[in-house]
Write a structure and sequence with these properties.
Its EC number is 2.4.1.-. GO terms for molecular function: UDP-glucosyltransferase activity. May glycosylate diterpenes or flavonols in leaves. The protein is of the alpha/beta class and about 475 residues long. It is built from 19 helices and 17 strands. Strand 2, helix 2 and strand 3 form a beta-alpha-beta unit.
């Protein structure tokens, strides 16, 4: 008897962090069930962008080491991009992604027309690719959203949409106030100062409402989180009949790709000679970078703290670049205080891009100053490394609030710091604030114990008998039910 192959179409967003998470989810699924086959449709960023080259390099590395039953197809791109308005960046993002719908349609048509026992059971689309639901509907195929952030923030998005659509609330005015509001799934009222960037403008809010309304059209939402970490938000989502079924499947992490890179560098050698849990690691994600004034404040704080440090210092993109992705300095000394590198040579190391997971895994690392991207927070939990929060963009302020106030798993440098990715504007965090945060990070034993305990739970949940392990099984059964 021939086993019917369950074919899934994955469409990640053209952002390296989202693509990595999506492919890690794909690997998890095919490893759990031999009947699954996944085709990943890759949308490359606009031609010539630095982030595009990072994604291309990553996809090429995957194709050199083929993954059984995961296939990659890079979608063509229109020669003429949608109109880009600096005052409406998210409109451009949405229009750019949707300009690939015709290519998705053609690709899936070809897949279906091929003979064999393969049937498309579902589209799994990134949380910012919800326009692809229309394409899935044309093929009478259900859509699943892969929400690469956490359950609390998912609930927050639904709540904001409800306030707008059902209660006619002026969320823009609310976002620009100093209010605190109750949100389902949160124990504490949520301050408007930690609302993500964009909720205070019509263009940004319209975009959030568009994708959140589309979430409700999906058959289910897959979330990279786990029940033991976000019990209250997950239960809140599951109790609302207007929200599709939620599958917490995390932590979905890739802890292998960076290991080789790290061992080939001198970073590992430097960490090897440091005392256990003595090093503060500063890393701000794939888009995190600061101007010279802020860099100097960080440097003053590190020097005054006297703590050993490993600092991933990235160079902001120039105004001529189409990409927002930072690069590495040829000489970081040009933006650091004079003599800083010499004075701290015995206790610190300044590097460019960092293999983050591999660094966090090292016994010498005792604290993590982070931008609070969700992948980074899951990695810190997995390795039991406490975090000092310095959110920058997207929903990172909400993540920081959750980690510090809701769960007590982090200490605060800032909760409400925001940097506009499109014009670079931000406030300055002072050396005094940074130094104080670093001291609390390295000295707060309660937070350290809590995060180590949660780290044990994060490892247990993905093993047989764990809640995420069971959730993945239910999700696969849901996929399979579409073709039986």
């Amino acid at each position: 008897m021939t086993t019917t192959v369950t074919q899934l179409v994955f469409i990640p967003a053209p952002v390296i962090g989202h693509i990595r998470s999506t492919i890690d989810l794909a690997k998890l699924l095919v490893n759990r069930d031999q009947r699954l086959s996944i085709t990943v449709l890759v949308i490359n960023p606009p031609s010539g962008s630095r982030s595009g080259s990072v994604i291309t390099t990553y996809i090429e590395s995957l194709t050199k080491k083929p993954i059984e039953r995961i296939h990659f197809i890079e979608l063509p791109q229109d020669e003429t991009l949608p109109e880009r308005d600096p005052k409406a960046p998210m409109t451009f993002v949405n229009n750019f992604i949707n300009s690939h719908r015709k290519y998705v349609r053609d690709t899936v048509s070809n897949m279906i027309s091929q003979t064999g026992s393969c049937r498309v059971a579902g589209f799994v689309v990134d949380m910012i690719c919800t326009g692809m639901i229309d394409v899935a509907n044309e093929f009478n195929v259900p859509t699943y959203i892969f929400f690469t952030s956490n359950a609390a923030y998912l609930g927050f998005q639904f709540h904001i949409q409800t306030l707008c659509d059902d209660h006619n609330e002026d969320v823009i005015e609310l976002s620009n106030s100093d209010a605190k509001i109750p949100v389902p799934g949160f124990m504490n009222p949520v301050p408007t100062k930690v609302f993500p960037s964009g909720f205070d403008t019509k263009e940004g809010l319209d975009y959030v409402l568009l994708i959140t309304r589309n979430f409700r059209k999906a058959k289910a939402i897959i979330v990279n989180t786990f029940l033991e970490l976000e019990t209250r938000p997950i239960e809140s989502l599951s109790s609302d009949s207007r929200i599709p079924s939620v599958y917490p499947v995390g932590p979905v992490l890739n802890l292998e790709d960076d290991a080789g890179t790290l061992s080939e560098s001198d970073v590992i050698s430097w960490l090897d000679i440091q005392q256990p849990s003595s090093v503060v690691f500063l890393c701000f994600g794939s888009l995190g970078c600061f101007d010279e004034v802020q860099v100097k404040e960080i440097a003053y704080a590190l020097e005054r703290s006297g703590r050993s440090f490993l600092w991933s210092l990235r160079q902001p993109p120039s105004s001529e670049q189409t990409s927002r992705a930072p690069g590495d300095y040829e000489d970081p000394g040009v933006v650091l205080p004079e003599g800083f590198l010499e004075r701290t040579a015995s206790i610190g190391k300044v590097i460019g891009w960092a293999p983050q997971a591999a660094v966090l895994a090292h016994r010498a690392v005792g604290g993590f100053v982070s931008h609070c991207g969700w992948n980074s927070l899951l990695e810190s939990l997995w390795f039991g490394v406490p975090v000092a929060t310095w959110p920058i963009y997207a929903e990172q302020q909400m993540n920081a609030f959750g980690m510090v106030v809701e769960m007590g798993l982090a200490v605060e440098i800032k909760l409400d710091y925001k940097k506009d990715l499109f014009d670079g504007k931000s406030n300055i965090v002072t050396a005094e604030e940074i130094e104080s945060g670093i001291r609390r990070l390295m000295e707060d034993d309660d937070v350290r114990e809590k995060i180590k305990e949660m780290g044990k739970k994060s490892k247990a949940t993905v093993k047989e008998g764990g809640s995420s392990y069971a959730s993945v099984r239910c999700l696969i059964d849901n996929f399979r039910s579409n073709i039986t």
